[in-house]
Amino acid sequence: MTVPALADLLTPADAEALAAAVLPAAVERFVGGAAGAELTLRANRAAFDRLHLVPRVLADVSSVGTTRTLLGTESALPVAVAPMAYQRAVHPDGEPAAARAARDAGVPFTACTFSSTAVEDITATGATTWFQLYWLRDRGHTGELLERAEAAGCRALMLTVDTPRMGRRAADMRGAFTLPDGVSPVHFGARPDGVPRTASSGVSAVAAQTANVVDPSLSWADLDWLRARTRLPLILKGVLDPDDAERAAACGADALVVSNHGGRQLDGALPALDALPAVAEAVAGRCEVLLDSGVRSGTDVLKALALGADGVLLGRPVLWGLAAGGHQGVLRVLHLLGEELESALALAGCPDLAAAARLRTVAGPGGEPR
């Protein structure tokens, strides 16, 4: 197989081949893999593939706008970089390189609780940064992370709500996955639970460490504690059920992320794109709605907007770009996504993102228009 050079990439998804050429096999499996039989991983893509757009014509698209305000900050695209752990496992420059690319592309970057670079070093890049939080067994440590995120200048807090425990990821278990030397969750410092232990056969060290520190008792009642301790806008990530979306909006969430964790949690869960219309209807504009899981192209972004999303989170393609070329690799992926979105908007007869929200869609051959 001929692997293209970074400059030869024509789509964000093309970066996957470059990443595969440079990543150790275990790390590639960790990035690309999912839970169980990976049914939901494949279903996420199938949902995008079977959804068809109904373009409008005779619209003046001589100028097409892609900017959107997300959580109070203007973004050049209706896109933010998703929270992804241990980015130094795919490239030594890790999270700061990806954050600089997000800054240069004009989109938000989400720093992760299990980041391999400190949140202070990420915000120092000048990127608009959101902080993703896992609910930790050590409530004091949770509070410390909140304080650090605010002090570092993060603009929003994203609480992941679909991970009371890590999904069973067979590839990582079979390979007894451990992080590469020198890569660790720096927000845990010298704590005894902070560095993933060496895995035994059939055990992922990352899964074992996550089980040790993430609190599965997280419930709706804990949102009051969280709200009382942060002034940041609150995003809940991992919502698929419209009843949960309704309750989150009633609790004052500023945004929801419709997500199945890229297929990495409950295998067999509903594709995020299929869950999106009901969630958007349930919240009825009371909070922003973002889509995560399976986004690979600008046309995917347009489909999400047509089904009611305010924007999307981009995950694996960012890691592929980072592995392939560090800062420049991620920037190339984000620029390609923007070019694809601008082209898709024009071809669909949408001069702006508001027009995209009015597009009709048809789900599959013979499907009913939405």
TrEMBL record:
Its cofactor is FMN. Belongs to the FMN-dependent alpha-hydroxy acid dehydrogenase family. SUPFAM superfamilies: FMN-linked oxidoreductases. InterPro entries: Aldolase_TIM, Alpha-hydoxy_acid_DH_FMN, FMN-dep_DH, FMN_HAD, FMN_hydac_DH_AS. Pfam families: FMN_dh. Gene3D superfamilies: Aldolase class I (3.20.20.70). This is Alpha-hydroxy-acid oxidizing protein. Residues 4-366 form the FMN hydroxy acid dehydrogenase domain. The keyword Hydrolase does not apply. Keywords: Oxidoreductase. The keyword Lyase does not apply. It comes from the Bacteria.
